[in-house]
Amino acid sequence: xxxxxxxxxxxxxxxxxxxxxxxxxxxxxxxxxNNYSDEWIELKNISNEKVDISLWEIINSNKSIKIVxxxxxxxxxxxxxxxxxxxxxxxxxxxxDLIFVGAIRNDNEELRLFDKNCNVLDNVIxxxxxxxxxxxxxxxxERKTDFSWYTSSAPCINGVCGTPKAENSIYSSxxxxxxxxxxxxxxxxxxxxxPE
Length: 196
Description:
Helix content is about 0%, strand content about 25%. By secondary structure, it is mainly beta. Strands 8-7-2-1-11-12 form a six-stranded mixed beta sheet, with no helix packed on it. A four-stranded antiparallel beta sheet has the order 5-4-9-10, with no helix packed on it. The radius of gyration is 21 Å and the shape is globular. It starts with about 20 loop residues before the first strand and ends in a 45-residue tail after the last strand. The mean pLDDT is about 90.
């Protein structure tokens, strides 16, 4: 096969497209129960039209991942595209669409999705840690319709704790601890009874 050369660059100034047609829908950044390197990325067409994703790119912040999607790749509405790291044994029960090399880091990471003109269409940032997913249980990070992230509640199949090429799991508080800053305000009230 022809090796496709990446032409997009991971520049600091991020001008993110507001017109989201294809997004990062799920990321197995922690690997699987079988192997921490069994990482995968799922893209999803959330528009109601067929989208040509030929020569689109996925690049991470240290450029160890530089994926170029082959010419002639289209996604129908709601269709998903599965990228598996190293080989097709990453997700045994689902056929990959593309293999990639390079590791998704567990922190200080960012993934960006570029169109063929290098416009940034979507991104996900893991500054100190990922917005969702779990390193210990190997649960994936899944996307909500409001584009926020949550940890998958899907049962693990063949060591894969997510929903590759399937609808995302139902949000469950069991796997998503909500860190809420609580402020306690004490209000002292004095009741005065006025005799009539």
